[in-house]
Task: structure prediction
Amino acid sequence: MNNLLVLPLLIPAFTAVILIFLKERINLQRIISAISVFVNIAIALIIVYQVNTNGIQTLYMGGWLPPYGIVFVADMFAALLVLTTAVVGAACLFFSFASIGEQRERFYYYTFFHFLLTGVFGSFLTGDLFNLFVCFEVLLVASYAMIVLGGTKVQLRETLKYILVNVISSSLFVAAIAYLYAATGTLNMAHLAIRVAEAGQDGVMNVIAVLLLLVFSLKAGLLLFFWLPDSYSAPPLAVRALFGALLTKVGLYAITRTFSLIFVHDLGLTHTLIGWMAGATMILGAVGALAYNDLSRIFNYNIVISVGFIAFGISVATQDSLNGVVFYLMHDMIAKALLFFLGGMIIAASGTEQLRQMGGLIRRYPWTGWMFFILTLALVGVPPLSGFAGKVMMVRSGFGEQHVALALIALASSFVVLYSLIKVFQEVFWGGERSEEEVHPLRYKAMMAPAAVLFVLIILMGIGAETVNGLVAQAGAVLADPAEYINAVMKGVDEDGLSNIVKSHDSVLVDVPE
Amino acid sequence: MEILIALAIGVLFTVGVYLVLSKSLLRILLGTTLLTHGVHLLLLTMAGLKTGASPLLGEKADSYVDPLPQALILTSIVISFGVSAFFIVLAYRAYRSAGMDDVEGSKGERP
Result:
């Protein structure tokens, strides 16, 4: 039992509610938001520390032992993602201060921001499949509001499509949960793992597994990413950074968790399917990244490519590749946020999203330019930057496990990332100024500060890869062998004990007088 | 009983999918509503129907209904209620300010 685990949800939710009452007091809103995100980082650090020293932490809500009641679990994987989310969230908040504009701030932007964080933290920490659905909905509803906030024509149009896709995928999620409950009689993930292992992963279980995979793929943009490039181009830049960094990663987290913990008995079917989807995602994402001359679309297709890359690591499913998945997820959350920060500065400075109309920005913004260049190298995976360690672990075990074709696609996709982003670098920063308009005002320092923090993190993660890897390896070990996770959740509840608990639990129920 | 409800769920899903695939925004809205209805009914049916007693009758009860799916449905209904309300308001707003009442208008300009 560790009550700390609920704080990453409570603090943003509480903050969001307070901010509703401070509609007109924007400065106060900012101060409270800033305090809230820093407290969250501190708590995430403590959780990582505790998991590191004491092993997996659990919290049984209301003292109800599993499989009854809701359980929160922080293994190293969840803890690291919570920490990364807290840091990226804080950076996005400070970028919002500089770029989101007073109009949106007055209309509850920060409230939605904190609700979104609540949903993301909840998805990482929950140990219950239905609770995962609820947390998904919390973050989705917040994201609907954030996409449409401002109400321009483009935003209205794209939000309609975004909501439609997500309503349908949420319906399918509940349907999958219903089937799973009918087949196993539980929704606690650790308990599900035991039950599925007992019952064997036969036809019915495989159907449920594939249904869940479809649902999570829609959220993550794995193969089913048709909605992503348009939807993510609609909202303002700070929101795009938040979405690009966090939302697809939640879907990937759900895939990783489900297919490393519960459905692990028919790798030939499920993981082969994930592998195919990953390959197709990388190829299609690469086509998109090369096809467009419009900054936000190039960036959005880069998100798609990295989703495919991470899914490739999940499909290989060795300890080494799962380490790579964890490492690369952390790197990608930070790097994608930074990519959108720098892209946001470029777009704000040149007043357009079309590459052809940009140029010569290196003279006005040398720091932005060189940061963009180094970030490109990090995204491609050039050592000693942060993208390298994750990529090398995944690709190495891909070759080792006979997934040669996929590993080659993954390597080729890195070159596409390099080409597309260097093209952006050339067009934006080289040459002369192409826009005839006057220089757009830009709160340069305020925008640079959060970007610089993430930039330093990318370099530190690359140079200190050995240290980070110590933590990442713990996460990968739990993913590769979920016994530790199951034991931590079902502590003292072995197979015989489970029926004992059922008995003692029934007696707790109130007797209804005749 | 389960067979009957299963058929009803099937019909709800079919009609829901058919409506979602149509062009008119209003039909799509109704389609998603029917789809979520079908899903909720599915969740209820999966725990077994007509077991002969209400849930939580105490340890000596011979039979009782599984209370968990009902709790789940309640949560899910609240969520879909909120999302539907938001969706409807948004569609209305899109109709009023962007003149959009079917998905033809939602394609947007391509670069």
